[in-house]
Specification:
By secondary structure, the chain is of the alpha+beta class. It has one domain (2-174): Arc Repressor Mutant, subunit A (Orthogonal Bundle), CATH 1.10.10. It is 40% helix and 16% strand. It has seven helices and seven strands. The longest helix has 17 residues, at 139-155.
């Protein structure tokens, strides 16, 4: 695990220069490539956490309350994300006494790029809509190429790759928050 300035912890994905940073306490997931930052939405952060939690608890049904407790997130945020992930087919859910949530397929079959594309609804790196130079601007194709490269790296990983990287739940969460797994408020 690499330590950054302040209270940030970096987790590098194997074979890539892409690094996931968990900024505390804002909970923003950021992708960092060559020192430049691209912020993903808090919604995407929560979606990734839900998927990680479910992937770390294979073969059993989990509850929203468990995820809220372990990650210290808002119940309403987690509930909204879980409903969306279930509607999209990333997870399955059942109500009632025997209910819960679980991954709808193997972590090897869940592509990180597809998950992040689903959670993110805005991919414009620069807002060119009102710019008078947009039609002649040379940055548009460059930024489009950069975005394709960013997404290609994410597409090369599965949820299983992320789960296997740090050796499971204890290593993944214990190193971040002193063993508790809960995010500081």
């Amino acid at each position: 695990m690499l330590r950054a300035a302040g209270e940030r912890v970096k987790h590098a994905l194997p074979g890539s220069r892409l690094v996931f940073i968990q900024a505390m306490p804002a909970l923003w997931l950021q992708a960092v490539y060559s020192g430049l930052e691209m912020n993903l939405k808090f919604y995407t952060d929560v979606a990734l956490r839900v998927m990680l939690y479910l992937g770390q608890h294979p073969g059993r049904r989990s509850s929203i309350a468990e995820i809220v407790s372990d990650y210290g997130l808002s119940r309403s945020h987690v509930t909204k994300v879980v409903h969306d992930l279930a509607s999209a087919g990333f997870i399955a859910s059942a109500r009632g006494y025997q209910g819960g949530i679980w991954l709808s397929k193997s972590p090897r079959d869940i592509n990180v790029g597809a998950l992040i594309r689903h959670a993110e609804d805005h991919w414009a790196l620069v807002d060119c809509a009102g710019c008078a130079l947009a039609a002649q601007c040379g940055f548009n194709p460059i930024l489009a190429e950069a975005l394709r490269a960013f997404l290609a790296v994410l597409d090369s990983y599965t949820l299983a790759d992320v789960l296997e990287h740090e050796g499971g739940r204890t290593a993944l969460l214990g190193g971040l928050y002193g063993g508790s797994g809960a995010c500081p408020q």
